[in-house]
Sequence to fold (106 residues):
Amino acid sequence: GVSLDYQKGVFSVTGIECTENEKNITITFHPASGPFKTIHDNYQIEIHLNAKPESLYAQYNDHQESLREVNAESGKNGWRFDADSRLLIISCMPDQSEGFSVTITK
Fold:
């Protein structure tokens, strides 16, 4: 953590859900709850997949954004797929105070 305040009960919890159907995988990050103000401004999500996805998009509170295939370590919204390790790496920069979701089209 950023401080030792968690020892005094000052922390936040972010719920994460994953749903899957034949065509899509959706990962939802719910808004953080608790007295600690989160300071995450970039999420890196790693998912094992058998094949490169067709497309990805992020759903933020007030808009939807198509995520482009880029170097996901660049700190920008985007993704890359490592075929050798079958690993999808997604980088998202959401609004800190709101939840968001990422949908992967298989």
User: Anything to note?
Assistant: The mean pLDDT is 87. The two ends are 35 Å apart (CA to CA).
